[in-house]
Design brief:
Layout lengths: L5 H9 L2 H21 L3 H22 L3 H9 L1 H11 L1 H11 L4 H5 L1 H21 L3 E5 L6 H4 L3 E6 L2 H7 L10 E5 L2 E7 L14 H12 L3 E5 L6 E5 L2 E6 L1 H11 L17 H9 L1
Parallel strand pairs: 1-3
Antiparallel strand pairs: 1-5, 2-4, 3-4, 5-6, 6-7
Length: 281
């Protein structure tokens, strides 16, 4: 049996339970960060910064560049601050996810059930009429910042109300409607656009829906004015080409309204890119 090198033996001797826990926490944190950044422009920035740092480190070692080595050793604190500034939206989203408890959604389950039924019927009717729509359903994350950009309504949700708001030419039809519980809180709201790549056939409504689903846990129903197609955005992913039944199943799953329903298509199962490829073929 080969003898264990002295250096490795020293490391193993110092590897106690606390050290193992320390390694697991750091590994999980890095893995969680990478999952959070996956598919975003921040991931490209992180990859580019990593390549530059590795190249600079290797160059300083191979050519014995003392000044470059000193700069790399002395810039760790600065790099941490720079990372916090560059990835501020992603860090904010991560902390916001940690702060979600789910209690609010559980307590308002019957309100959500009522709202989901009205939104499903309204979206189907709007798609049949060829009217574009953007309906944001609030979950645990408060949307007051978004609500403040629109016109307050505080009206009980109904199919007629939602359909009337999105009639072409109506004063509020261009913005988003915010639904909290079974109340239409505001209309004509402005959403931050997503920076994720979308096929050219998807317009501002889809990009806005993806944007708010990336920064909050809201569920967004989109009706395309051009194609009469219903889509749904949640957790930074978008499902397209939904009919009334599939839309209902997705909404019931996201709001945990049917606990015994297990055979449900996961959100993100059909992405915008996949839908575009399917239509092209």
């Amino acid at each position: 049996m080969p003898e264990i090198p002295a250096g490795a033996r020293d490391v193993l001797q110092r590897l106690d339970a606390a050290a193992v826990l320390d390694i697991l926490i750091i590994s999980f944190s890095v893995y969680w960060l990478l999952l959070l950044l996956r598919g975003t422009t921040a991931m490209t920035v992180l990859r580019g910064a990593g390549v530059l740092l590795v190249a600079a480190f290797l160059l300083s070692r191979m050519l014995d560049l003392q000044v470059l080595s000193f700069i790399l050793r002395s810039s760790v604190a600065g790099l941490v601050i720079a990372m916090a500034i560059i990835f501020q939206p992603e860090i904010r989203r991560a902390l916001e996810r940690v702060g979600r408890t789910g209690f609010r959604s559980v307590l308002r389950r019957e309100e959500h059930r009522h709202a989901v039924d009205r939104v499903r019927r309204a979206a189907t009717q709007l798609a049949r009429l060829g009217y574009g729509a953007l309906i944001v359903l609030e979950r645990d994350t408060g949307l007051q910042d978004v609500i403040d950009t629109g016109i307050p309504l505080r009206a009980e949700i109904s199919v007629e109300l939602l359909t009337g708001i999105f009639v072409p030419g109506a004063p509020l039809h261009d913005g988003a409607v915010i639904v909290s519980g079974n109340t239409v809180v505001a209309a004509g709201c402005t959403l931050t656009l997503s920076e994720s790549r979308l096929p050219s056939e998807y317009g501002m409504r889809h990009r806005a829906a993806l944007g708010i689903s990336e920064s909050t846990d809201a569920v967004v129903v989109i009706v395309s004015e051009e194609h009469g197609e219903i889509s749904l955005a949640s957790n930074g992913r978008m499902v397209t080409e939904l009919d009334e039944e599939r839309l209902s199943r997705q909404l019931h799953r996201l709001f945990a309204l049917d606990e015994d329903e297990t055979a449900v298509e996961p959100v993100g199962g059909v992405t915008a890119d996949a839908a575009a490829e399917r239509r092209a073929s």
